[in-house]
Specification:
The structure is a homodimer. With about 130 residues, chain A is mostly beta strands. Chain A has two helices and eight strands, in the order ββαββββββα. Strand 5 (about 65-75) of chain A pairs antiparallel with strand 7 of chain B.
């Protein structure tokens, strides 16, 4: 069993989430050891929420869970890459498919890529 | 000009590096504000080395620089995604194309994906 290095960031490490079919990078979040174990056991991408200070099963509120198809770990065991099937078609709480919808143009301006695929107000009942 | 949030991690934020053509995730590193500005100005992926405590122009030693083709920023401005052309064909100091060459199998074992494309001893003159 691989031993991940949670020490560099005080118990956390970054986890990149990528669409397993298209290769699109959907989001980045952090895992503690509990989140890592829960991901392995459940097959659902699970993180540690730094703002809520609690385990965060992605999609628990919205229904947009991420089914883990493949797990990769980097050369020094301090970063995880999850290849997932994104239920609901969008990973971002804004309704965008990917959280990385802001493109920086050559002048340094921000260009929004794509449109939300769901209405956050509807999904999260704000 | 976008304002990135360097505060959540004490002056750093994670930067994901992806091959701009294949979509393969090559590595993850951290940027401070100086690294971010250097990346924008030079067009070469530049990070902050947590082990050396200094600016790290990726490929400065090995020659395997990363030419930035596109920059994306996530929904809360605390993570960067660089789409790059990887000079020399490999991002990892081990000689592997991607740092994420360890696949976790269903039993929890590690399977090495692919072979190094260069010999680290040759490139880094160890």
């Amino acid at each position: 069993m691989i031993q991940l290095d949670f020490n560099k960031m005080g118990g956390l490490l970054p986890a990149i989430v990528q669409d397993h079919e298209t290769g699109e990078v959907l989001m980045l979040a952090f895992m503690n050891e509990e989140a890592w174990r829960h991901t392995l056991k459940s097959g659902k991408a699970t993180f540690y929420s730094r703002t809520r200070n609690s385990l965060w099963i992605k999609g628990d509120t919205s229904g947009n869970v991420q089914l883990v198809k493949e797990i990769r770990v980097d050369c020094d065991n301090d970063t995880v890459l999850l290849k997932v099937a994104q239920v609901g078609g969008a990973a971002c709480h804004t309704g965008h498919r990917s959280c990385f919808y802001q493109k920086i143009t050559e002048t340094g301006a921000v260009e929004i890529i794509g449109k939300p695929v769901f209405d956050p107000k509807e999904v999260y009942k704000e």
